[in-house]
Amino acid sequence: MDSFLKNISKDTLLSLVLNGYKKLLIFMVFGAIAGFLMFKLNPTTYTTVFVFKTDLISKEYAVTLGDNLSYIFKKNDFKKASKLLNIDTKEVFKINELIITPFEGGLFKIEIYSKDTLLYSIIEKGIKNYILNDVFVKEIIYKEKNYLQPILQILNLEIVQLEQLRNDYQKNPKNYSLTNPTDLNKFLIESQEKSTSFKNKLAYLETITFNKDYTFSKQVAKKSLFYLVLKYVLIASIAGFIYILLQEYLFPFKN
């Protein structure tokens, strides 16, 4: 091999190129064709970004949900993805990849890479279905409801009793000489505020809020035809030169 390399001078290389230029041109033409085909076969990709807020899932679990869904898309299991998102298979087929990135304060960013622009309403519905129908999330909702509902019932009963006591006091204050109306009103207001707080938690427990102000869709920059043709012509040229070199020195044809 050493003697083979020593025998190849600059003049020899130039001679090889001049003598085998036709073969080299054929390689370059095939390289240009390959670059053109790669440009045509490489589909236009769009990225769609959504921002949503929920207190149901942690940062870590949001990433897990995103990774699971992204893996399904990579396997091209569109039927399963359609079932999880509960959206039409035609829309699911457009999606190449899905990434969920968590931020502070229960905010999450979703990046979707797709073959076409996606309808905001469809993706919003799909993500909500996916998260709310997750087994772990369902368990969280179930436990939270079982925790909040009894407390809310106790608070509502307490409010009824306090209101009744206040009404009775107003009708006949002499019978409630030990009752302080200021404290009574204070306790009633506190109970009402707690009740409202728990009602809101129950009402918004399964809420996933999408912020439309941070939603956008744009085309991902595609590699230019010139870049791809040049790239494959260079690769083909190197391959062609190696072919000529090997043919000349290692497997010479005998006339």
Summary?
The protein is of the alpha+beta class. It is built from ten helices and five strands; from the N terminus they run H-H-H-E-H-H-H-E-E-H-H-H-E-E-H.
Written overview of the protein:
With 255 residues, the chain is of the alpha+beta class. The protein has three domains: 9-42 and 224-247, no CATH class; 46-133, Alpha-Beta Plaits, CATH 3.30.70; 138-203. 64% of the residues lie in helices and 12% in strands. The chain contains ten helices and five strands. Strands 1, 2, 3, 4 and 5 form a five-stranded antiparallel β-sheet that branches. Strand 2 and strand 3 form a beta hairpin. The radius of gyration is 35 Å and the shape is rod-shaped. The model is unreliable at 1-6 (pLDDT under 50).
Topology:
Blueprint lengths: L1 H5 L3 H10 L1 H21 L4 E8 L5 H16 L3 H8 L3 H4 L2 E8 L4 E8 L5 H13 L2 H37 L9 H23 L5 E2 L5 E4 L5 H25 L6
Antiparallel strand pairs: 1-3, 1-4, 1-5, 2-3
Helix pairs in contact: 3-10, 8-9
Notable characteristics:
10 helices; Alpha-Beta Plaits; about 260 residues; alpha+beta; 5-stranded antiparallel β-sheet; 5 strands; disordered N terminus
Q: State the share of residues found in helices, binned by percent.
A: 55-70%
Over all CA atoms, what is the radius of gyration? 35 Å
CATH class of the largest domain: Alpha Beta
Major beta sheet, specifics?
5 strands, antiparallel
- CATH third-level topology of the largest domain: Alpha-Beta Plaits
Which sequence of SSEs, written as H and E, runs from N to C?
HHHEHHHEEHHHEEH
The N- to C-terminal Cα distance equals 25 Å
Question: Structural class from helices and strands?
Answer: alpha+beta
